[in-house]
Every structure is written in C-alpha cells, then in structure tokens.
Amino acid sequence: MKKKPAGLFEKKQFLMAFSLAAAAVCWLIVVMTQGTTTTEIIRRVPVRVDAQSEILLDLGLHPIETETQYVDVEVNGLSTVVGLLTPDDLTVVPRLNSVTEPATYDLSLMSGNQTPNPDYVIRSFSPSTVKLRFDRIERRSFNVEERINGLAIVSGYTEKGTEITPDVVNIEGPAAELDRISRCEIVAELTSPLDRTYAADCPIILYDENGDALDTEAMHLSLDVTDARLVIQVLKRAEIPLTVDYITPPVGFPLRELRDARASLSQDAVVIAGPEEIIDGMQQINLGYIDVRDITPDSNVFQYEVPLPPPADQFIRIDNVSSVALTFDLAGLESARFNVTDLRIVNAPIGYDPQILARTIPNVLFVGRTEILESMTTESIIAEVDLSERDIVSGSYTCPVKISVPGRGLVWAVGHHTVTVEVTALESGDESENPAL
Predict the structure, then answer these.
(1) pLDDT digits over 74-117, tens only?
(2) Torsion of CA 151, 154, 160, 164, to 10 degrees
(3) b/e per residue 86-118 (b: at least 16 CB within 10 A)
(4) N or C terminus: fewer CB in 10 A for the chain?
(5) Does the model's pTM come out above 0.85?
C-alpha cells in the first residue's frame, strides 16, 4: 500500500518559514500603529457638580440638584488609549467662576481630571454649556393647619375642638422655594356626622399664595415629617343637677325645712359636655358644703364655683356657667342672743375624768322663727363637747362645741364656739366616779 504524501503544514521547513513571516507581519503592524493618533466621541459622560467647591462655600450656595446632565466629549489621542475610553474614565465639571449669587446659570464645561492623561486631550463638549441652578439652603418652621370638609355633629353631641400632632413642620430647601410656601395643611374628608372622637393620619400639603398645591420633590424640599395626626374631639352633652351638702346641723334640726323650703340655687343645673363614658354615669355635681352655723340674716348668700368632673380638661361648659349662688330666704326669721350655760361632755374616754373649765358661753347669736326665739330661755339650750372626735390623754384641750335647741324647730346657733377641757387620768377603781360615763 502506497504512503499518502505529507501536507505543507506537516513539513517542518514550511512551518518554520511561516512562523517567521507571521512574526514579521505582527511586528510591522505594531511599529506602524505605535504613534498613530485618533479622534473619538465618548458619549453620555455625566456632568459632576462639586457642592464643596470653595467658590460655592464662600457664597453659601448649593447646587439645586435636578436630573444628571450628560454631554458628549470629543477626545483626541493615541488610538491604543482613546479606543478603550468609557464615560467612567472622564470627569466633566462646570466652570463656577461666574457664579456670584442665587440664580440659574449657563456654565461652560471643563475637564475635572486632577491629573491629565498625556496620551489624549479633550477637544470639545457637546453641548458646550449646561444650565445649573444655585441657591442658599435654609430651614424654616411652618404651622400646620387643618381643613375639614363635610364636618357635621350628631344632635346631642358637640365638638370640643381639633388637635394636630405635630402642629409645626420644619422644612429644609432652597430659600427661593421656601418663599413660595404660603401655608401647610392637612385635609380631612368626612362622609357622615360624628358622634364620637375622630382621629386620622393625614399627609401634609404645601400651598402657595394662590392656593395651588406645591410639589415638594420638584422643589427639592425636605420635610421633617410628612404626616400629621388630626383629632376632632366630640363630646356628649348633658344637663347635670347641682347639689350642696349641709354640715353641722344641730341635734333635732329640721334640715329639710331649711334646705327645701328656704334654700335656692341661682341655677339648679348646668349643661356640660364630656366623654360619653363619663357623662352617662354622672347624676349630679356637688358644689361643696354649707355650714348651718354660718347662715345669718346679714349673711345668707354664698357663692360656689361649679367644678368640672375629672379630667377637667376633657369637659367644656356649654352654658358657660362657672359659678352659682346659694341663697337662703330668711323671711319670718329673727335673731337674738343668749348665754349658754348647759355645757355637757359626751363620749368621754374610759379611764379619764374630763372637765369643762368654762361655766358659760356668753352672748351666743341664735337665728330662728320669731315665736321660737320669744319662747326660748337659757334652759332650752344645750352645748355638747364630743370627745370621740379626737384622741384623748391627760392634758388640756380646746374643743369645739355643738349648740342645739332640742325640740324647738327651725332655730340654730350662729358661729363657731369652743371651750377648754381639762382631762385627768383616773386611778384604778375610780372609773365609776366619772359622771360623764
């Protein structure tokens, strides 16, 4: 069988010659292109603005950022270098030497590379200028107001007022844009009458002097809060009776006759509004106390403040009545003075001998029906010292006296009277000798 002839690339001599020729061609190409220059257009190179530029810092100005602007850059240089350039390899910045005050400028461009590359130069930019705006950045505070559309309250209820939290918004941005803000509002749209407190978080909207809403993003404004909570407090109304409590009426005193037939308030009830869960449980408002001993023909009108239930800041006075007068009709009553000589101790402590040091309380003023006063004598009056009202040991005490005219009807002693009581401890076995027991 005959052997197949070998190909050219299988011959050693040919391969050696081919390799030498290929190497020579490559060397020739490198030599020919080593010093060749070319011009390329690098497209969409971003324009960068240095906010920390010394020029801007000295003027107190900041670039008001908009969308990044791009330019095409014409570059000339070694083809082996220029051909590999990308937009990230170039830095283009505006010339800021013409910026002097807040305004919008058409600024020419220049290379921002700190160390120029000797292998290429920038010939031009397209476009050759960029429009940039500069302003001072300020921070201002604005009150947040509310606008409520469709507000109605169910009958029997009332609106106490509105609360906005927070009620102030701090806005930072270009001074010129801040000047455009006329007011800050939150808006609530109500669709039905309210019978309870309403609360909602509402976005804060900025308006200019024409009432048009402003676009905070387009104006480069930054708000420290974007929403505020609106609370419309709704309270339930009610008419609440007023009462006064009587203290220290004498023993057997006809209190009902004085209270129901002769006492009258300038207003028997007040209209207030408050939280429904509290107002539904209210039956009366107690104004305080009246001491029967303070009532005289010359002093028969007493003023009382009308308190609001706790928490008082959750209630309002619908009728604006904050005080009332308690008046006693003393027609048909007279006054007279008597010496009180029947002084008694009640509820004396076991093991002690209390003695009243005074024998009489002189010149006590009494008020009562004329026929009662005319029939009274000193013997009709009793003065009692109740020792159960305090802790007693041996010693001397000033004690209040309760004066009454038992069984006589509408008559009472005026004023606050006291006597001195001397208390002595009894020896063992002497308790039976204590006449007060």
Answers:
(1) 999 998 899 899 999 999 999 999 999 999 999 999 998 777 78
(2) -40
(3) ebeebebbbebeebeebeebebebebeeeeebe
(4) N
(5) no
pLDDT at 31: 46
Both structure tokens of 423: 């208390």
Whether 380 shows a pLDDT value over 80: the answer reads yes
The per-residue pLDDT for range 179-192, each reduced to its tens digit, is 999 999 999 999 99
**Which of 394, 126, 288, 389 has the alpha carbon at shortest distance from 402?**
389
Q: pLDDT tens-digit profile of 192-244?
A: 999 999 999 999 999 999 999 999 999 999 999 999 999 999 999 999 999 99
Closest by CA to 304, choosing from 244, 239, 241, is 244
In angstroms, the CA 186 to CA 233 distance is: 16
Close Cβ partners of 204 (under 8 Å, ≥ 6 residues apart):
144, 169, 184, 185, 186, 223, 225, 226, 227, 228
Average pLDDT, whole number, for the chain? 90
Check pLDDT > 90 for residue 147: yes
Query: Domains in the chain, start-ordered, CATH in brackets?
Result: 37-135 (2.170.120.30), 137-235 (2.170.120.40), 237-328 (2.170.120), 333-433 (2.170.120.30)
